[in-house]
């Protein structure tokens, strides 16, 4: 994919390096030439000095042929304006903007712009670490929208079917490891047994629900 990133701060530079390592064609735009030092010497993408809310800057950066667009400057207004330009003027399909103010994030999602709010995500993850389960090294992927979790089924979860734990669009059980050497693709009718290692993909707002099934487990951890 050809991906255009506006903002080369800590998040933007880290994302650019990850995407570059995955062999995507990455272009980073920032007003400060010094910001590109965060990309390091191994970054093989392209950099453009300029503001992400300038049509000509984005055009020169290759917005017309971009498959994805990310706005992660330190200002909500700039991120949204850049995202709107990418959407309305360049027709980029995959757009993500970082927004610190949760109500504004919801409003712009209604306009078709995917937003990520560190304020909301951080609060939910801290709450779940404190209250619901002994999370170990919580990490999120896919811009913080999903988390891969592994839990051990105790007596409380034993006897439950996969369909009782899954929630459409929120919790999906991908695989179950039962004893040494036995790994199975999860099916709705499969019944859990004590000691089963359950692998799931969970949306942030469903982490608490998932944790309740395995609250007695000694191990519930995030997967890299």
Features:
224 residues; alpha/beta; Rossmann fold; Alpha-Beta Plaits; six-stranded parallel β-sheet; 11 strands; 23% strand; disordered C terminus
* Average residue pLDDT: 83
Indicate the overall shape.
Answer: elongated
Radius of gyration of CA atoms, rounded to a whole number: 20 Å
Helicity level: 25-40%
CATH class of the largest domain: Alpha Beta
How would you characterize this protein structure?
By secondary structure, this protein is an alpha/beta fold. Helices cover 29% and strands 23% of the residues. It folds into 2 domains: 2-118, Rossmann fold, CATH 3.40.50.720; 127-222, Alpha-Beta Plaits (2-Layer Sandwich). The longest helix has 14 residues, at 118-131. The two termini are 22 Å apart.
Outline of the structure:
With 224 residues, this protein is an alpha/beta fold. The protein has helices at residues 10-21, 55-60, 76-88, 102-109, 118-131, 162-165, 207-213; strands at residues 2-6, 25-30, 46-49, 68-71, 94-98, 114-116, 147-152, 171-177, 183-185, 197-202, 220-222. The protein folds into 2 domains: 2-118, Rossmann fold; 127-222, Alpha-Beta Plaits.
